[in-house]
Amino acid sequence: MKELLKQTLPFWEDLTGNEQNTLAQGVVKSSYEKGNVLHYGGRECAGVQIIKSGQARVFVTSPGGGEITLFRLLEGDVSILSAACMMKGLDIELDMEIEEDSIIYTIPKVLYKDISDQNTTVKDYTLEMISEKFSDIMWLFNQYVFSNVASRLADTILEHRALAGSDTLAITHDVLARDIGTAREVVTRLLKQFQIDGLVKLTRGRIEVLDGANLGKV
Amino acid sequence: MKELLKQTLPFWEDLTGNEQNTLAQGVVKSSYEKGNVLHYGGRECAGVQIIKSGQARVFVTSPGGGEITLFRLLEGDVSILSAACMMKGLDIELDMEIEEDSIIYTIPKVLYKDISDQNTTVKDYTLEMISEKFSDIMWLFNQYVFSNVASRLADTILEHRALAGSDTLAITHDVLARDIGTAREVVTRLLKQFQIDGLVKLTRGRIEVLDGANLGKV
DNA sequence: CTTGTTTTGTGATTTTGTCACAGAAGAATC
DNA sequence: GATTCTTCTGTGACAAAATCACAAAACAAG
Is the model's pTM score more than 0.85? Predict the structure, then answer.
């Protein structure tokens, strides 16, 4: 247990032995199945989450049902936004969908807050993590506002390729549509064109990247 | 001078007399004329800025020349994002356009950083301000992604009305287009429709809100 | 080898963005 | 006060993307 915390929390060594113990004892382990959806927002949130195994997708939702993926959490990632509610001034609504059966350790918000109040290194870490996510989302915002759908789609496919570490992706048009915040039909039509252009090869539930270099230039 | 700092910086009273003096002496005063554009981003930034008088608009720019306004700075506001470069992990590109002749006091980034490193209250303030901006931009992102242009336009008009404190706004279609990140022609067409619907009255360089209540429901 | 479910494909329509100008309102100059 | 000049607004034509409404495959399970 302490081993996991030591590996994932950069400030671990700066904690006192006492703080380390409190943390290690307070951490809560949970398992989630693929398809589960958690919600953070308003005045309620889980706390700082550590992904022990599995994969999750953090996204925003429109009243009309539309979605756009902000980022994914992979094994070893630490999610600070799931503790947003404890930050003064930070009031955002997020959903998290478990994409692969996951085991997640949660540092309850009160526990994290106490340690953060006492320990400057932890506070610095929090600020840094928030800043990082802020940057990520600014980047996404720019992409969304200023790029056309085709190039956003191409980028997402390349991201998924990097994630999978393979040219063959087990992914549906629907997932891609949710990632980039558009309609499934639009993705289908564009992929069709990508295939005609020789960039990808399509089969049901599967996309094979044939020409990553040119896909990146779309 | 100290008076201004005391009024705008909530952590002022928590500083030591020494820190207060260092700050007061280090602050730089500058004046900017309407139309000036400043850029923050990458590894360079001004520092924490205090708007003594005037008005400015902070926005992002696309390679193709498109713009979208993130927020405005008014008299008495403190801009923390203009010091983004000193925050580890926070790497964003922003522009700031002076909309009214302004006098701005800047706390140089090194100075702010030193004080922030020594004083927990200042660090808390920084985290809170960043979080607030993060929230604002998440809200904007949601608006942009999930609302149609008409309702975004209506909302912006109402914001400008609140800002001006009057139903008659001295504003051009172009400004509104930059605010909501669309083309000027689109704004012209929509405003035309708003006028037909009896929501606003249009004259050159001027929009009069006739029915704010229904404009909010667009 | 049916029956269901998930995924993909397509046409028709609407909304929004882009391009290319034309016209109008004010400001500046003669 | 008439004329240029500049800024702002209006519009038609077209392209890109979103939305709606289904149909057709592909696969899974019984």
Answer: yes
